[in-house]
Amino acid sequence: MADLRNPDALTRMQADFDRQGVMATLGVTVADIAPGHVTLTLPFRADLTQHHGFLHAGVITTVMDSAAGFAAFTLMDAEAEVLTAEFKASFLAPARGQSFRMVGEVIKSGRTLTFVEAKAFALDADRETLIATLTATMMSVRNPALRTPDAGTP
To answer: Under CATH, what is the fold of the domain 9-144?
Structure first.
């Protein structure tokens, strides 16, 4: 298990997650938080599918990005906020299932940059299928304006 640089990191991560409108819109919830590790879940919804009836790649990528970013955030210091610097997603199987689980895991945490991987799984009855992977670089940003809940976007 990774070391926490901020003893309030897990509580702060949950609070920041709860303020994300996109996660609420998609119906994503936090299933597990640990230092360097975040698991998010998403139930299947027909309104989030593409034209073949599979969960849309954009939805999968959005949730994997959040799982990866919040995993990185759990290991950042108290003055830091997290932003995605880059990511690459690979899709391995059609996204069909009753629900989905996205797991973000820190590979290497640094003061400014953190390397993270995420995996997306489709769950159908007792079967779990790996449907996508993501590698990402997360950036630690020390900007007080980002810490205010109503900061808005420029």
So the answer is: Thiol Ester Dehydrase; Chain A (3.10.129)
